[in-house]
Each structure stands twice: as C-alpha cells, then as structure tokens.
C-alpha cells in the first residue's frame, strides 16, 4: 500500500492502468523511443477516504510552456469561466479594493474578466505565460508571502482543474494560511469522484489528475488544515465537476448544499469496496466492447478516425491498446499538437480540415465531455452519413 498525501493513512489500490505516458506529451514521430512512462494506478485512503494516484508524475509536467490545452478554445468553457468571474464580482469581490489570485490560470479567462472590471488580480503559475498580471511560481507558503508583501491579502483564491493536480496538497493550504484574508475564500472546481464512478468516466484518470475529490474527502482535508468546506455546487462541464468553497474555520456557516451532498455520498457508500470493484469491472467491459467494435469495423472495411487529441485519450488508447492500426489518425484543432503523434499510442494528429477530406464512416470521440458542442459544429459529418462512437458511460454509436 501507498501512503496518503493528505493524512498519511494507507492507500488501497483498486485499479491499475499499467504503464502510461505523460498525457500531454505529444511526440515528434522521430522521437517515440524517448518517451517517459510511469505506473498509473489509483487507490483510496483507508483513513480519510481521499481517492488518489499511487504514484505522482514528475511535478511541473502539466504546466510546461508547451502545454496544449486552452480553456478559451471551447465556447462553452469560455462562457463558463466568464459567468464565474461575474458571480465573484457580485459577491466575494464587491468590497473596497478587492483582490483575486488564480492558481494555474491557463489562458486567463477569469482574470481577464475581473481585470476588465477594474479589480486587482494576479495569476500564479510556474511558466508565467498569458496576458494577465503574473507571479511566476508554484503556489505555496513562500510564494504566498511574496504576494502578501506586495499586494496584501486575497479575498478570493480561485483554481479550476488545478488543485487536483497538486500531490503535495499541504503546500496549497500553507499558502492559503498566509495569503487569504480573514473572511476570504478558496474556490476551486475539479472532476467529481461521484460522477467518475457513476458514469465510468475512467479516462478522467491520468497523470495530471492526482486527486479525485468527493465532498466528504474535501471536507476532511479542509478540517485537517484549519479550514472548512462551506459550499458546494454541481457543474455539468467536463463530464461532471463540483465547485468547492473553503473558508477559514468558524468564519462562515456551511450551506445546506454541503450537508445534502455529504448525506448523498454516505447513502451511496461512495468509496466502499463493492462500489470500486463495480467501477473496475465496468472499465474492462468498456475496453472489451470498444476493441471488439473497432476490430469489426476494420474487418468490414469501415474507416474510423479519432476526434479530439485530449489528455484523457492517453489513458484510453494506452490501456486499451488502440493504435494507428485501428484509428489511423485523430483530428484536433490545437496547432501545437498537429504533426505529432499521441503519447504512447503514436496515433498521428491532424488538423480539422482532414476530418472532412473525405469524412470517415465513424468518428471515435475522445473529447466526449464536449460532445454537444462538437456534434453541433460537425453537423455536416452526420448529414454525410457519419456516426459517432462514444465509450462513456458505455460503448455506443450515435
């Protein structure tokens, strides 16, 4: 067993995806022999119930300068972050001279929105890229002290799809103790364990996600570090997330939403062995069904291409053993991925124009969390007789 990064309890493994590449490390076809692989397995702490990877990938891989995901590339996500920024402006950032810090701010949709409203802001990220004010560092007690000295306390510390990446989670809370104003809040949103298990969204498990949060585990984690979980909100984006709000202990009364979600998780017995074993069985059933479908379509002479060279697709292709023999290429709109091959599985990545030249018979949708937006954009594919293959929550064809 491994040791929990939150409470030092014993972590019991419940699924092993084998050796996996770094999910965003797309490869030049000439350099496939130099890839880094690490063991990707997931377990649950027997003490605090935090679900986590047993082995973290090297720190900083998810935030290197060539990191290819940008939230503004999706209209849905751009709107999502703008709406969150406006809500914060109306609530937590409505006082005199408010100040917000965003950890791992990606391309800065939230910070640009609050900047345009005249609110002081700062992004904290090691690479220091983007068109917003930046402090180039990991967020911890040291960087928090530097920010506090130059900017004063933060009313809001915000993070999206970032807190779950930080294996040494104590560093985040030590930074919060230094930087957060007495009545300030940490607001963060990450994939929700309940959705992952319920929908068998196994491809949310890859190197960049170390923790898989539930409300009960987050509540216990916050208490351990002198804070409290005071609000939760379910979000439909990225296949199901929870937005958590954390405050200093005894500064705010938790909302009814917190009590309701904690009660629901107890009723669902979210991390009981039987629940986790059912998830493991469902993952392998999806693997068998998808491989059977792709193999049959190849035998029938049908053409299948991938759509969306996502980070999560690395788990699918490498654990399932899907390569160019079954999926000759995958289309993606990110220029920095085009001309490279996918990590580990070495499927060529091509620009969107190749998707329609000519249309394939089937498209394997790796970016299933953006299915509605993508299918609306690619209506001509359906009109031409094309069909979509999805594998969450089970293999099905649309």
From TrEMBL:
Coiled coil: none annotated. The keyword Methyltransferase applies. Residues 236-393 form the C-methyltransferase domain. Residues 4-59 form the Methyltransferase putative zinc binding domain. Keywords: Methyltransferase, Transferase. SUPFAM superfamilies: S-adenosyl-L-methionine-dependent methyltransferases (SSF53335). It comes from the Bacteria. GO terms for molecular function: methyltransferase activity. GO terms for biological process: methylation. It holds the Pfam family Methyltransf_14. This is Class I SAM-dependent methyltransferase. It comes from Natronosporangium hydrolyticum.
């Amino acid at each position: 067993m491994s040791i929990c990064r939150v409470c030092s309890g014993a972590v019991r493994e419940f699924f092993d995806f084998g050796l996996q590449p770094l999910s965003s490390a797309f490869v030049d076809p000439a350099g496939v022999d130099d890839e880094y692989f690490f063991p990707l397995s997931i377990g649950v702490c027997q003490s605090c119930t935090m679900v986590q990877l047993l082995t973290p990938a090297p720190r900083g891989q998810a935030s290197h300068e060539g990191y290819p995901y940008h939230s503004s590339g999706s209209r849905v996500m751009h709107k999502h972050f703008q709406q969150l920024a406006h809500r914060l402006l109306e609530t937590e950032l409505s006082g005199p001279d408010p100040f917000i810090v965003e950890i791992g701010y990606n391309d800065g949709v939230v910070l640009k929105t609050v900047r345009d409203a005249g609110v002081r802001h700062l992004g904290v990220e090691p690479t220091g890229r983007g068109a917003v004010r930046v402090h180039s560092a990991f967020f911890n007690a040291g960087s928090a002290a530097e920010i506090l000295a130059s900017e004063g306390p933060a009313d809001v510390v915000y993070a999206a799809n970032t807190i779950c990446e930080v294996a040494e989670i104590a560093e985040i809370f030590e930074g919060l103790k230094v930087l957060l104003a007495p009545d300030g809040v940490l607001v963060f949103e990450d994939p929700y364990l309940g959705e992952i298990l319920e929908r068998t969204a196994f491809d949310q498990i890859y190197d960049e996600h170390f923790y898989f949060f539930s409300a009960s585990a987050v509540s216990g984690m916050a208490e351990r570090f002198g804070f409290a979980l005071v609000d939760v909100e379910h979000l439909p984006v990225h296949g199901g997330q929870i937005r958590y709000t954390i405050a200093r202990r005894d500064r705010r009364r938790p909302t009814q939403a917190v009590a309701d979600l904690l009660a629901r998780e107890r009723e669902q017995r979210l991390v009981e062995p039987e629940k986790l074993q059912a998830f493991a069985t469902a993952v392998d059933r999806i693997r068998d069904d998808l491989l059977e479908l792709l193999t049959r379509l190849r035998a029938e002479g049908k053409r299948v291409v991938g759509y969306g060279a996502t980070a999560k697709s690395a788990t699918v292709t490498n654990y399932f053993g899907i390569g160019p023999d079954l999926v000759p290429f995958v289309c993606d709109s990110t220029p920095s991925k085009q001309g490279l091959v996918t990590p580990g599985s070495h499927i060529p990545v091509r620009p969107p124009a190749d998707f329609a030249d000519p249309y394939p018979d089937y498209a394997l949708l790796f970016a299933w969390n953006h299915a509605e937006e993508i299918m609306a954009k690619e209506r001509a594919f359906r009109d031409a007789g094309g069909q979509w293959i999805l594998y969450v929550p089970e293999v099905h064809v649309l």
